[in-house]
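Example 398.
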Amino acid sequence: MATINKNFKKLAGNYLFSEIAKRTKVFSEENPGVEILRLGIGNTTQPLPPTIIKGLLHGVKKLADVKTYTGYGDEQGDMRLREALSDRYKKLAVDIEPLEIFISDGAKPDSANIQSIFAADSVVAVADPVYPVYVDSNILADKKKIVYMPCTQGNGFIPSPPKTKVDLVYLCSPNNPTGAVMRRAQLKAFVDYANKFKAVIIFDAAYCEYIYDKSLPKSIYQIAGSQSCAIEINSFSKWAGFTGVRLGWTVVPTDLVLDGTKKGEVNALWNRRQTTMFNGASNIAQEGGLTVLSKNGQRECQKVIDYYMGNARIIRTSLIKMGFEVFGGENAPYLWLKIPHGFTSWGFFDKLLHQAHVVGTPGSGFGQNGEGYLRLSAFGHRENIKKALNSIKKNLKP
Ligand SMILES: Cc1ncc(COP(=O)(O)O)c(C=O)c1O
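Predicted structure in complex with pyridoxal-5'-phosphate:
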């Protein structure tokens, strides 16, 4: 008789976003005609720039001609795109070979799947609060022990390496949900820890193009010694608005060595995993990706990022003016609002919804240390963001 994977029962469930939807729906039904202003969504809203649309159309047109038609491509991705990404790393003064880069359909699947190449008894460290995929994917795979690295106001929402020995460490910088960005020295402490204990860092850099401060690292490979201990996962989603198009990549350096493996073996393992379980990213998406990396594409994507970061600035300055304490939003599209004394995350979520008709994301949904915070996002339309802030100013009672 077939039985289910009982680990599904150990997951916290889709509690956060389904509960937000439920409470918002109840409010809307009780208050018909009231406009709900969403300040919490992590989804992109702006159209793709012209150069990228041209690239995607080029991909479509190639499929219409027998001479240029392609079916399945290489599971590892189009070599032109792998080379273009390798060139992108060169601009960061980082040497990553095209064969170390695996194109995928996004950072979420890669960050969920990467655990599959590590032993089931691996001890896993994650930040608290955390992007839930890192935790849930490891629970489903029956990894027995998860260690939490607290991120609080006291440490600027930046974790410190665990006090005990762990095998895998997930880091996300710029961070979802807190908007905090790790400095070089903070990242170096993790690289030193990983090299010392032969641990592997899984570095999610999905928001790295939102870093404006040039002293902050966009890639973990900007830290000396990281190629022997770190895998980097990245995405075209927030960089180029590919949330619906779907394209990402993972770097597994040849130098990455685990207990009992030789140089190149971990890279080969991920290659084996991908060739077995994945059939390659969309050829149309990859044509689009190539144009993202072109000079015009980068300039146009930067304009969209500037727009979102303009939103972040407006949210930040307006809320600070109103007397709130706000973190993040300077090198990241997320803002971490400290909730006024006396409210829980959900309590303040309700107050904001009922009084100002604004929807945020309760920080407690990302982990224990998220309690007392609300995640706000800069990905909305400017006019909606302004409406939301005006409503908070006008309608939120002290
Ligand atoms: C930290 C982080 N990683 C990955 C993703 C998802 O990336 P993708 O759209 O490439 O799957 C998100 C999306 O919200 C994210 O916040």
